Amino acid sequence: MTRLERTLAATFQAARWTDGPACPRCFDGADVLRVKRLPNGLWQLHCRCCRYAFSELVGTPLEGSGAALAQWALVVLAGERALGQTAARALGLNRHTLAAMHAKLTDSRLAARWAASLRAAGVTPARLARWLADRATRRRAALPPWRRALRRAPALAPARWESATAPSRTAAEAP
């Protein structure tokens, strides 16, 4: 997890709960335990009072979304400027998904608090966009394991993987 992802998670937590996490089912904040850290930097929580397990995204517009926190943060910071095909491409999203994200955030008070805490932490839209572009480049550059194995030992590749331009073996050349 990068420093930017940790900053995004911390600012989201500060905007979500000012007095610490509270259970969305029984609204008890005293008996909530942090169980484990999720891959996106947020916590999975457990209420000891009603035994309800939940994440920090429950009850927010971000709940059930597959988008990364960085994508949501960029939409929050950019506001109306983040709509359109070009902005959607830069975020790695469909334009309809981006419009739905924006519509969810316009009705939320959480978005204004999160934007203020992001600005206070020094997170800028340019920094988020650069991080998202770097992440997309790293994902494109990653090869599947079978392709990496072929690059290390091309002699182990089956004959059907050889290119069509390679000279074919005749019966006389075969061992």
Structure overview:
With about 180 residues, the protein is mainly alpha-helical. It has one domain (about 5-140). About 45% of the residues lie in helices and about 10% in strands. It is built from 7 helices and 3 strands. The protein has helices at about 5-15, 70-80, 85-90, 95-105, 110-120, 125-140, 145-150, and strands spanning about 30-35, 45, 55. Strands 1-2-3 form a 3-stranded antiparallel β-sheet, with no helix packed on it. The radius of gyration is 23 Å and the shape is globular. It starts with a helix and ends in a 23-residue tail after the last helix. The mean pLDDT is about 75.
List the helices and strands and how they pair.
Layout: H1 3-16, E1 32-37, E2 43-47, E3 53-55, H2 69-78, H3 85-91, H4 95-106, H5 109-120, H6 125-141, H7 145-152
Antiparallel strand pairs: 1-2, 2-3
Helix pairs in contact: 1-5, 2-6
Name its key features.
175 residues, mainly alpha, globular
Total number of β-strand segments? 3
Shape: globular
Unreliable runs, pLDDT <50, ≥5 residues?
A: none
Beta-strand residue fraction: 5-15%
Q: What is the overall pLDDT average?
A: 77
Structural class: mainly alpha
How do the strands of the widest beta sheet line up side by side? 1-2-3
Order of helices and strands: HEEEHHHHHH
First and last CA, distance? 52 Å
Number of distinct helices: 7
Oligomer: single chain
Could you estimate the helical fraction of the residues in percent? 40-55%
Q: Rg from C-alpha positions?
A: 23 Å
Largest sheet: 3 strands, antiparallel
Total domain modules: 1
